[in-house]
Amino acid sequence: MRKVYIFLFIGASFLLQLCTTKKKAQNATVATKVTYVTDIQPLVVKHCSPCHIPPQGKKEPLNTYAAMKAEIDNVIESIKKNPGEHGFMPARRAKLSDSTILVFENWKKGGLLEQ
Question: Which is the most buried residue in 2, 55, 75, 110, by most CB within 10 A?
Fold first, then answer.
């Protein structure tokens, strides 16, 4: 009888773990949907201005969806560099957090959605 209870306990634990893992995976998928308007544009305004925002900015403009979409590979490459490396961005500022960099990467992986 004791073996039956142990077997049932192990089986129930296994099933509960599967349910929890599936729910976490679904939540992770929803959380990775990144859009330009909601997620990227505010980060560009906060971290890339005034250098990349016309009319004050003298660097490659990144103030539109089309510009960011066209330059996303260069942007990700630049923000992943460390201060002191050639091409590091944002210039003369602290390195962006890993979570902020991940937003840009997830936007690219998610298909560069505008809205």
Answer: 75
Cα end-to-end distance, the chain, whole Å? 59
Report CA-CA distances (Å) from 109 to 8, 10, 59, 64, 101.
42, 38, 26, 19, 13
pLDDT tens sequence across 58-110: 889 999 999 999 999 999 999 999 999 999 999 999 999 999 999 999 999 99
For 86, counting Cβ atoms within 10 Å of its Cβ (0-12 exposed, 13-18 middle, 19+ buried), the class is exposed
Q: Are 104 and 75 in contact (CB under 8 A)?
A: yes
Vertex 47, ends 44 and 50: CA angle to 5°? 85
